[in-house]
Design a protein that fits this description.
The chain is α/β, with parallel strands linked by helices and about 220 residues long. Helix content is about 25%, strand content about 30%. It has helices at about 5-15, 25-30, 65-75, 90-100, 110-120, 160; strands spanning about 50-55, 60, 80-85, 100-105, 125-130, 145-155, 165-175, 180-185, 195-200.
Length: about 220
C-alpha cells in the first residue's frame, strides 16, 4: 500500500466531501499519521471510510467524523480540552496539535496503555491520558473550552455541559440506532446553551452513560 497516496485519497475523497474545508484541519490530517494510531492487525484499514477495531471491543470513529468534529469545534491554541473515550489516542493527538492542553479519559486499561504509547511516540507532550470513567467529566479541573465525546451517547448529561466555559463547545454523536446525529453544543451564557445538528451517522456507544429507561407493558 502506498501510504501517502492512501492518506491523500482519504482527505480528498472522504473528508473534503463531508464539508471539511478548513485548510488548517486538512493540513493537520496530512501531518498526524493515522496509521501510527491503528493496531498492527488492522493497518490496512487506517485510511478506510469505516470504524477501525480496537482492543476491548472498541473502535476508532470514521476519519470523516473525526475531521468534521475537529473543524466544527474550532479549537484555539490557548484553549483547554477534555476528551471522553481515548481509544487509540488519535483524536487526542489531533486536539493536542490545536489546544494548549488536552486531558483524555478512558476506562479500559489496555486502551490507556495503547494511547499513552502512541501519543508518546508521536511527541505529544501536552496530552494527559487518565484511566477514569469520563461520563461525569472532570469538574474539579474544569471548566473547559472544548469537550469531545469520542463515541455515541443517548443524550449529553447536563453535568458535562456545565463543565464548559461560556463560549465553550462540546461535540458528540447523540441518539439511538438507527438515528444518531453529530451534535455541537455551545455555552452561550452561564445559563444558556445552543445546539446544532451537523450530520447523521452511527457510532459505538461510550461506556458509563445511562441509557433511557424502556417501558414494558
Amino acid at each position: 500500500m502506498n501510504i501517502e497516496q492512501a492518506r491523500f485519497n482519504m482527505i480528498e475523497q472522504q473528508i473534503r466531501t463531508w464539508e471539511v474545508l478548513d485548510q488548517a484541519v486538512l493540513s493537520l490530517l496530512a501531518v498526524v499519521k493515522r496509521e501510527d494510531f491503528v493496531p498492527a492487525a488492522h493497518q490496512a484499514m487506517a485510511f478506510m471510510d469505516t470504524e477501525v477495531p480496537l482492543p476491548g471491543g472498541q473502535s476508532m470513529l470514521e476519519p470523516k467524523v473525526e475531521a468534521r468534529f475537529l473543524q466544527e469545534l474550532g479549537v484555539h491554541k490557548h484553549e483547554r480540552a477534555l476528551e471522553v473515550g481515548t481509544g487509540s489516542g488519535y483524536m487526542a493527538a489531533l486536539l493536542g496539535h490545536r489546544a494548549q492542553h488536552v486531558i483524555t479519559l478512558e476506562t479500559r486499561p489496555e486502551l490507556v496503555s495503547l494511547a499513552r504509547a502512541n501519543l508518546e511516540r508521536a511527541g505529544l507532550m501536552n496530552v494527559s491520558v487518565r484511566q477514569a470513567d469520563g461520563s461525569r467529566g472532570l469538574a474539579e479541573e474544569g471548566p473547559f473550552d472544548v469537550i469531545m465525546l469520542s463515541g455515541s451517547v443517548p443524550e449529553v448529561p447536563a453535568g458535562l455541559l456545565a463543565q464548559l466555559k461560556v463560549g465553550g463547545r462540546l461535540a458528540a454523536v447523540v441518539g439511538q440506532q438507527p438515528i444518531m446525529r453529530g451534535m455541537l453544543f455551545t455555552r452561550s451564557t452561564e445559563h444558556d446553551f445552543t445546539s446544532v445538528a451537523m450530520f447523521d451517522t452511527v457510532a459505538p456507544r461510550l461506556s458509563g452513560f445511562d441509557e433511557p429507561t424502556r417501558f414494558k407493558f
